[in-house]
Amino acid sequence: MKRTSYCIAFLLLVVSCSGEKINPNNSQPQSTRPAAFAGTFYPADSTMLANAITAFVKDASPIVATDPVAIIVPHAGYVFSGQIAADGYNQVRHTAYDLVVIIGTNHSVSNLAGIVVYPKGAFATPIGAAEIDEKAADELMKEDRDAAANVPAHAKEHSVEVQVPFIKYLFPHARILPVIIGEPDVDLCIRFGHALAKVLKNKEALIVASSDLSHYPGFDDAVRTDNRTLKTICSMDPEEISRSLSQQVGRNVPGLLTCACGEGPIIAAVAAAKDLGANSTSIVGYSNSGYNPLGTADRVVGYGAVVFGKGKASAPDDVDSLVVNSDYRLDSSDKRTLLGYARKTLEQYFTSQTVPLPRHFNPFLKVKRGAFVTLRKNGELRGCIGHMDEDRPLSTVVGAMALQAAFNDPRFRSLSADELRQIEIEISVLTPIAKVGSAADIVLGRDGVVLKKGDKQAVFLPQVAKETGWSREVFLDQLCYKAGLNAGDWKKADLFTFQADVFSEAEIH
User: Fold this and answer.
1) What burial class does residue 501 get, using C-beta atoms within 10 Å of its C-beta: 0-12 exposed, 13-18 middle, 19+ buried?
2) How large is the greatest C-alpha to C-alpha distance in the chain, in angstroms?
């Protein structure tokens, strides 16, 4: 069936890896580096940004790390990866750090080699500037022959910048040391890791390795690929990590371009963490853009959070499981969860320009199902949009359709924040659609109907027949009108039926 299209502006997932060549000897910094990606990768408004980080930390995975040394967190737009980043930062936010080293990867400068340090000044954010630890920068460049100051290389690098608001918000007095790894050469990254550990040995410091996971496979392949990658990272073996990432790309998974765009930062962080006494790892967060209400299932990017600490090592669990279609029927608790998630999705978008991930739900809410979300204001329709493809988890579809109904129903103006408290949300969870032989097979009130003729199609939910009292013929004529066809065209059209489990906030308390 035809997929719905999204009108919400997507925050950028990636930045082109091509770029203008720069002068590597130009190392005189401005006093403060501007926040180049505020308003795209994360909110430019200080209140919106603080709201986003607060919401993400509130929903973050519980603290499991013992004496944390380093974390791996993603660097896509906050609307996609902010929650997983918060899962990582939540593991360390109760520790007082004087210095946070951010290890990013190169997206913006061609032919960039070595370890690129931002040596002094500050990074601006909408919630305040984070100052550079100039002394640590000098020490690192003396310790590692591959490290050199290069301010222009940092000007348009998002993998470092998107970490700074989290750090400024959670560790307001900590200084930062931004570093970019040009190419993920294993030996170079390991040398850098060893040098970094020497510089940090007697400091209250945290290492943040910035990396997304798989790029552009389908949803199911992303889950499998990212699971392997995260488990390999937990081996804490730099050579094995590099080898495994290369082998996975060599498996020719459709659409897969890379398993980790921050391979260099990951390897360097592992080498440094081991030298600093870390001997345990925990996978504390996983998602991909297909789980996100603003994503799609056919071409996704993976996000994971890992923490390295000093303590007993444990074998990593699977980061996720793929749920197949089943005959499980939603109970009242499941329905309450879905309704609450739909409302929370709208609330968080209004207050922070981000959306919550569907997480900590009954596993059956990951079943791939279609769904419609209907909004009513004072009993009158205010928006209704659905997604019928069975390609994404039900909980994700509900969040996506809540946004669609609020902002993309062409019959209505966009919902405002002030209206939200007056809105009642109704959800229709669909069964798989099935083609019927004739109109006589349609049971009004039980069946929803999809009509398709040529390139035109339309759908009515089962409750339409109950609400209107139409006869079968009138029902189908109206469906033709909705599709842009003439009355009676249903006699030569393809007809499909489905059923729906319909529930609303008025019914489920």
Assistant:
1) middle
2) 83
SS3 of 272-284: the string is HHHHCCCCEEEEE
Which residues on adjacent β-strands are paired with residue 393?
368
The answer to whether the CB of 429 falls within 8 A of the CB of 389 is no
- How many whole angstroms separate alpha carbon 158 and alpha carbon 77? 9
Tokens 């080898």 locate to: 243
Question: Phi and psi dihedrals of 144, rounded to 5?
Answer: -120, 115
Q: Where are the alpha helices (DSSP H) in 17-162?
A: 46-58, 78-90, 134-143, 158-161
- According to CATH, the superfamily of the domain at 332-504 is Hypothetical protein ph0010; domain 1 (3.30.700.20)
d(C-alpha 287, C-alpha 362), whole Å: 16
Cα 136 to Cα 31, 38, 142, 384, 507, distances in angstroms: 17, 27, 10, 55, 60
**Spatial contact of 283 and 318, defined as CB atoms under 8 Å apart:** no
CATH 3.40.830.10 spans which residues of the chain? 46-309
Task: Say if CB 282 and CB 307 are below 8 A apart.
Answer: yes
Interaxial angle between packed helices 238-249 and 263-275, expressed in degrees from 0 to 180 and rounded to the nearest 10: 160
Residue 487's φ and ψ, nearest 5 degrees, are: -55, 135
* Helices (H), ranges, 369-508: 394-407, 463-468, 472-483
pLDDT in tens, the chain (509 residues): 433 333 333 333 333 333 333 334 444 445 799 999 999 999 999 999 999 999 999 999 999 988 999 999 999 999 999 999 999 999 999 999 999 999 999 999 999 999 999 999 999 999 999 999 999 999 999 999 999 999 999 999 999 999 999 999 999 999 999 999 998 999 999 999 999 999 999 999 999 999 999 999 999 999 999 999 999 999 999 999 999 999 999 999 999 999 999 999 999 999 999 999 999 999 999 999 999 999 999 999 999 999 999 976 554 555 665 555 556 789 999 999 999 999 999 999 999 999 999 988 888 898 999 999 999 999 999 999 999 988 999 999 999 999 999 999 999 999 999 999 999 999 999 998 999 999 999 999 999 999 999 999 999 999 999 999 999 999 999 999 999 999 999 999 999 999 999 999 999 87
Q: Where in the chain is the domain with CATH 3.30.700.20?
A: 332-504
Distance, CA of 172 to CA of 258 (rounded, Å) = 34
Q: Rounded to an integer, what distance in angstroms lies between the CA atom of residue 403 and that of residue 348?
A: 11
Top CATH class of 46-309 equals alpha beta
Contact, 207 vs 71, CB < 8 A? yes
Q: How far is CA 281 from the centre of its chain?
A: 22
Helix 46-58 with 163-170: angle, nearest 10 deg: 80
